[in-house]
User: What shape does this take?
Amino acid sequence: MNPLVHYRLDGQLALIGLSRPPVNALGQPLRATLLKACERAAADPAVRAIVLHGANGLFSAGADISEFGSPASHAAPDLPGLLLRLTRIDKPLIAAVGKLALGGGLELALACGYRIGEPGARIGLPEINLGLLPGAGGTQRLPRLIGAESALNMILSGEQLDASRAHLLGLFDCLADGPEQLLEQACGYARDLLARGAPAQPAAPYPNPGAELPEDFFAFYRAEHEARWKSRLAPRLVLAALEAACVLPLDEGLVREQDLFRQAEASRQSQALRHVFFAEREAGRVPGIDPAIELRSIRQVAVIGAGTMGGGIAMNFANAGIPVTVLEQQADALQRGLGNVRRNYEISVQRGKLSQEQLEQRMALLRGTLDYADIADADLVIEAVFEKLEVKQQVFRTLDEVCKPGAILATNTSSLDVDAIAAVTRRPQDVIGLHFFSPANVMRLLEVVRARETAPQVLATTLKLARRIGKLPVVSGVCFGFIGNRMLEPYAREAMRLVLEGATPAQVDAVLTGIDLNMGVLSMLDLAGIDVNYLVRQANHAAFADDPSYCRLGDELYAQGRYGQKTGSGFFRYEGRQRLDDPAVTTLAERLAGELRIPRRPIDAGEIHDRCLFMLINEGIQLLDEGIALRASDIDLVWINGYGFPAHLGGPLHYAEQLGLDKVLAGILACQASLGEHGQRWFQPAPLLQRLVAAGRTRIETF
Ligand code: 3H9
Assistant: This one.
């Protein structure tokens, strides 16, 4: 059995190595074993100092996230108690930090009197990303070590610092020459400390961290940042903990921190963010595909089309150091496309995010061509041409002719039938959908569309590659719009219908931003293009042809040339970047409602919430039941990373679980009953939702 902790004596030193792969998460068994080892060293008169390290190099990624919300999280010894005990051992403790010290892992290092890092080490307090605050002394010990303002910024950003920055800030006392030398040099450092008669805990550089701050610092900070935090609880709790560090003695501050931590841990927001953490790790796993499957090697990529999408896609590969050839039909379009890519990089240089040298390196990886023969050797080809089935099929016929055997052929369609695209080739097993979101070089989500005949090896290779280029891949089956755009359809439909019935676009969007979505759905349509949305609708027209009111408002805006932000008007009016209400839209809605005999009435926020969000949720549950998504959490990831759904609500399906599935079902049935023909036609609860509620289940899963 893995001993969890290695204990070894080296002269007057006890070397204690954490050994719980993969990341030394500080769950209860590890905490208990670590405490025992430290007590043993404390009690051994032959031991004069203790070196704590990661037995396999990596120090610790913090508390065990899977324990939160369960009794194990606070089971003895709890992390704050364990660390408090370490600070009271009357022998110097030296943390030898290899690779990572995050969250509770860094707090463990902070409880040691001394810290040495290796040059590649990264440290941080990322608890905020889990809706938490550091809860094992981090909010109290860090400000005493590096000052209150630096501590506040580090905790609120959740950012990881590299070793040299950590050294500069005083988080590391010194740096080892390399990872191999870390333990040996940590021991050398420990011996130096003993030789110097250094105390177990050196004096804090900022014993009274509040003294350095202006009196109104926290009030000012809160006022400046609160709008950006929206309804997130964790930043507010962090601020309260830092305030405590500035006004209370350490022992009282630690008690206060624990109170605040427990509040955060029990919150729905933290529960949701923990769900997202595990969802992201789960998304890469595909049932039935052996994780050890042999992958195809991807050394060269080609992108067909140098438009905004093609250029953005190509940048992802250049950023990851993978050569990419961009193919266009016309020389001027190619030049324009590559010029746009360079301009994008130049903006990054101006913002200090990229050096001029890196820009040149990336541009050197990009090659333009007008000739399909130049992409014959590509290992992966991604088509990013006009969103029309016939056009894409023609490209795939050509790819089938020119590409080498074994090349993966991908389409960047956002809604079209990937099976129908694969069918025009003689190698449908090599065809897959890769739906990048716009701007493709920025957005993290990648819908990976598994067609009927896509080979498991092709899917596994693409998932791995997606991670290599920094994307979050989510697997979708083939259906119109895949996961994201298919769910957008009923959500947008309901929003447009609400405006016909009497709501204003501003009212609809305010309800959605009111629960912290980045954007209301109507503003989002304005941004994406009313014309784009219209064309997508047309491609699926048969599904809605029998409802004359279906998206009528969107159709009329399209007919009037109000394409959204790019034409200065859509559901809203735009002056520069400013979005304004437009009475013309209300007038138009009144006219259309009259023509369609839809009575207009005042509509309240609750109705807007339920109609838009329950339709979104219902569609998600339906496509899970159809097997389009592998799991509910994948759907959540799509909406968080592709459509601005707040991560602290956990995505639409986690949100539904938190609301209560019975309430969601009751809400859908209430709309069905109260909205006449429209209700009967569209508010049909997904059979899976009905089955779940009937069975008394509270989690969304297929059964
Ligand atoms: C905290 O510390 C609170 C304290 O202040 C107070 C407490 C009282 N726990 O991401 P990967 C698993 S809050 C449990 O695929 P990578 C992960 O699920 C914590 N499990 O690898 C995965 O399992 P599986 C603050 C964890 O190399 C496997 O390890 N710390 C934890 O891309 C590999 O992970 C954080 O927020 C954990 N803490 O990235 C750090 N960490 O293979 C969270 C990882 O079964 N972790 N696992 O799917 C990370 O940011 C990344 O996982 C890390 C490695 C950078 C460490």
